[in-house]
Amino acid sequence: MKYLLRLLIYCAIVFVTFTVVSVVLLRFVPVSFTPILEAGDLEKTGFAYTLSLINGKYKMTILYCLMEFEVVRFNEMKKRINVISFKTLSAMLKELEADGLIHRKEFPQIPPKVEYSLTERGKSLMPLLDSLCEWGTANRVA
Q1: Do the strands 102-107 and 72-73 form a parallel or antiparallel pair, or are they unpaired?
Q2: What is the pTM of this model?
Q3: I need a labelling partner for 110 at 20 to 30 A (CA). Which of 27, 33, 80, 139 fits?
Q4: Domain 42-137 fold
Q5: Residues with Cβ < 8 Å from 89, sequence gap 6 or more?
Q6: What pLDDT, in 10s, does the model give residues 81-118?
Q7: Phi/psi-derived region of residue 14, left when phi > 0, alpha when psi is between -120 and 50, beta in every other case
Q8: DSSP secondary-structure letter at 118?
Q9: What is the CB neighbour count within 10 angstroms for residue 6?
Q10: What is the DSSP letter of 102?
């Protein structure tokens, strides 16, 4: 009987404490919980912006190639990424240049010579690519 009384008192204390804490917390928490991102707000995030710059079948491969070899000519890049077509490589390079991630240096000579390199903005993406490489190495399925 003595233990039953103690258990009842303990349960009452826990219930009262829980009720008081709940009431106090509810004053600071809005009644209707709103998520961090509203519907349609994902495209306004930095994540979506970054993806818009590097999203494309070969864009990250091109950036990685420029990171590894610094200055690369068009045909040299085509040889290094041998699965890409000339048309696709040209289109991806134009998009990356328009986004300010790579610099195109054209030499006025015959035959034409064009070199590509990373801009400072493009170089700022290198820690991201390095992290992707490290993750891929660590999580590669044998």
Answers
A1: unpaired
A2: 0.66
A3: 80
A4: Arc Repressor Mutant, subunit A (1.10.10)
A5: 58, 62, 74, 77, 78, 81
A6: 889 899 999 999 999 999 999 999 998 888 888 999 99
A7: alpha
A8: E
A9: 10
A10: E
